Amino acid sequence: MAPAPAVDGATAQAMFTALQQRAAAAGITLRNPPPEPTTCCGRGCNGCVWEGFLSAAEYWRQEALLQLPN
């Protein structure tokens, strides 16, 4: 079963770890996941760096799932 899409930094890290473990067990090397942002001001800006990170995390998840056996 595939991990759910990330909704925050903690769930993103858990998802990265779960998929990397599945990949390692299958002998597959995935590209590095996107790094968490370090420049968030915490004001909930439109176009927040976390929105970009979560989009990149979802792209990484989809790419990883394509490489992993079902």
TrEMBL record:
Phylogenetic placement of the source organism: Bacteria, Pseudomonadati, Pseudomonadota, Betaproteobacteria, Burkholderiales
A Pfam family: Oxidored-like
Top-rank lineage group of the source organism: Bacteria
Protein name as annotated: Oxidoreductase-like domain-containing protein
Stretches assigned to the Oxidoreductase-like domain: 26-63
Organism (species): Acidovorax benzenivorans
